[in-house]
Amino acid sequence: MAVYTKVSAEEIEGFLTRFDVGTLVSAKGIAEGVENSNYLIETTQDRFILTLYEKRVDPEDLPFFIAMLDHLAARHCPVPPMIADRQGGVIQELCGKSACLIKFLPGISVTIPTARQAQATGRALGEMHEALKDFSGYRANSMNHDTWRKLAVDCGPGELDAIAPGLHDLVERELDHLDQHWPESLPTSVIHADLFPDNVLMLDDQVTGLIDFYFSCTDIRAYDVAVTHAAWCFSEDGTIFDTAVSKALIAGYDETFPLNADERAVLPLLARGASLRFMLTRAFDWINTPADALVTRKDPTAFLNRLKYYQAHPDIFKA
Questions:
Q1: Counting C-beta atoms within 10 Å of the first and last residue's C-beta, which end of the chain has fewer, N or C?
Q2: 3-class secondary-structure state, position 218
Q3: Model's pTM, two decimal places?
Q4: Is the Cβ–Cβ distance between 264 and 298 less than 8 Å?
Q5: pLDDT classification of 313: cutoffs 50, 70, 90
């Protein structure tokens, strides 16, 4: 979450008159994340998230996200429903941007996950994949592995090397390796594709919310596990790997949607791809984020460290 588009209290008050949600009590911009503009809204009735969709979210994709969340909510997955206005509309416009009012879910995002929290998250991810087996919606992955080479070019070799000496050559070698070995026949479905700890809400060791589905797409299901593993199993800077958290996350997933032998065998490669993908998008944002944006830039070297770890430990997922 982030704030790129500044919305006044008066504009938010006017926006809320479209809904039966009470009147505005407070509004606060949320700085975490890098994708959309988000405000925590409190009214006389409840709390909500106001999201304005920025350049990375195509407004034409919003019906897909809405249908997916409705599908998951109907199957009792802990996802935040979008609020319809008095005419039944969900997609709104505010400050020239597509916008939605979203139900606030209780819970906090953990910063240093425990093994029990990781196991609960793996279980919730498996339950989500189970629930999506019969979801008919489709959205291509706009950040799939075929896009990573262009993203590296857009970052620029000099800019990559300014982030870490030799990074451009390392990226080129890894892209070549992934292009040669990326799997083509693993099971696919709609996936979250961004299930970082800040996209999971928890109370104690229980998952109370899965949020921020705006990278959700149709892709290799095990890749979703790899993304989550890379996000959850390392220290924030990527220099420390937590074996207990890793084992717990995979065990939790296997409780609800077991990996097959082919998926488990290719997880190390998928984790390398996930690390490269997030390193490149963080690098691009690091280079291009406007100086006046209320947003927390993420350090790309945190995922460079993860990539190097996965490269050096190909047996990481063996029992």
A1: C
A2: strand
A3: 0.91
A4: no
A5: very high
